[in-house]
Amino acid sequence: MFNNSKIKGRGAQLNTHNCFFELSHELRDDFLEYCEKEGEQADKNKTQYLEVFPKTIINKVTSPDVGMAFSMNMYQGCEHGCIYCYARNSHEFWGYSAGLDFERRILVKKKAPELLEQFLKKKTWKAQPIVMSGNTDCYQPAEQHFKITRQCLKVFLKYKHPVAIITKNSLILRDLDLLKALAKDHLISVNISITSLSETTRRILEPRTTTIKKRLETVKVLSDNKIPVNVMLAPLIPSINSHEVLPLAKAVSEAGALSIAHTIVRLNGAIGEIFKDWIKKTLPDRADKVLHQIENCHGGHLNDSRFGTRMRGEGQIAKQINDLVKLAKHKYFKDKTMPKLNTSLHDVYKEGQLKLF
Predict the structure, then answer these.
(1) Which residues pair with 48 in a beta bridge?
(2) Phi and psi (nearest 5°) for 35?
(3) Sign, Cα dihedral of 246, 2, 214, 109
(4) Helix (H, G, I), strand (E, B) or coil at 164
(5) What is the spatial distance between Cα 93 and Cα 135, in angstroms, rounded to a whole number?
(6) Which SMART domains does the UniProt record give (predicted)?
(7) H/E element holding 180?
(8) Using an 8 Å Cβ cutoff, are 103 and 78 in contact?
(9) Cis previous bond, 247, omega within 30
(10) Is the pLDDT of residue 141 over 90?
(11) How far is CA 340 from CA 163, 187, 204, 310, 343, in A?
(12) pLDDT of res. 357
């Protein structure tokens, strides 16, 4: 059963307490009752874009199990509203909640292209792939207005530097001209996140994301233009989308994807509270079942922070999911592989053009 009595267009249905703050903010029942009587809105549910001014844009990734060494994020917070998003907790570092604030208060780094260019010109820097969206989606709705991601791609192309992209938005096709130019020198790879083939599931898990049809079309267009695509089946959630592994793998392989990757959902930090509140309001008939099965994957807890096991889980349910993914890879990707990005060109383009001497 699906419950419609929820905040429309949002994943989280509440603002959790920021663990770094002594004080907390809450909407009291008497205030909500007053607003109802007065015909006023207690919460206007509007998105705010707030400019921030970081001194650097490239982050060194020290976690050994995330598959990247360096990342950059043009935006903090994400309007996509994916209920399971691990990045929600990072919004607390900025003084906001991991809940609704994460989806409605988007921090914008307009100076990102300049900071990136400064970094790539460092004499001490040796080219390694930099991942755009190690935290939040670089093609989220804010990008339509600010175009920061497009500006950064121009910088990567200018300096012939390898870049990888993680997104679930078809807006990436707007920049097909730059992606094709990067692909000529093997400087680009794209990771498209597709968590379900069901639009109903997509809408409740990821309320402001591109449709599944559009995402599959995006995989095909990129692949047809010789841009290598990996599809992230992530996260896989028991009794919500875990049964879709094989049909998902088949669909993305037929669309041209060269590989798939997956994680099993883990609800770290404030996300546990956000997810529990969401599922009891959204899928009340199966809430307890799903929560217990997630716990079964993580030693009786909703979260596991141990490197090596946190992404794959453990126990019988996790084993079944992981075995399904192995079967899917063997069945649909046996003769496919993602190429390595080219790190050999950047050094001679440090000044923005090929050195002649």
Answers:
(1) 105
(2) -60, -40
(3) negative
(4) strand
(5) 13
(6) Elp3 (SM00729)
(7) helix 176-183
(8) yes
(9) no
(10) yes
(11) 11, 9, 35, 26, 9
(12) 46
> What does the alpha-carbon distance between residue 82 and residue 293 come to, in Å, rounded to a whole number?
20
β-sheet bridge partners, residue 165 = 132, 190
| CA geometry: angle 277, 282, 283, nearest 5 deg | 105
Return the residue matching tokens 């992404």.
Answer: 311
- pLDDT-based confidence at 65, cuts 50/70/90? confident
Average pLDDT score, the chain: 90
pLDDT at 93: 85
Please state the φ and ψ torsions of residue 118, each to the nearest 5 degrees.
Answer: -60, -40
Per-residue pLDDT of 216-267, as tens digits, reads 999 999 999 999 999 999 999 999 999 999 999 999 999 999 999 999 999 9
Burial of 20 (0-12, 13-18, 19+ CB in 10 A): exposed
Question: Rounded distance, CA 14 to CA 315, Å?
Answer: 31
Alpha helices in 17-111 (DSSP H): 29-38, 100-104
The residue ranges of DSSP E strands in the chain, in sequence order, are: 48-51, 58-60, 70-72, 75-76, 105-108, 130-132, 163-167, 188-193, 229-236, 259-264
What pLDDT, in 10s, does the model give residues 176-199? 999 999 999 999 999 999 999 999
14: which DSSP letter?
Answer: S
Each residue's pLDDT tens digit, 73-124: 999 999 999 999 999 999 898 889 888 999 999 999 999 999 999 999 999 9
Please give the structure tokens belonging to residue 230. Answer: 């990996």
Domains and CATH numbers, the chain: 29-334 (3.20.20.70)
Tokens of 149: 């991601």
Question: Do 277 and 302 touch, CB atoms closer than 8 A?
Answer: no
DSSP string, 76-89: ES-TT--TT-GGGG
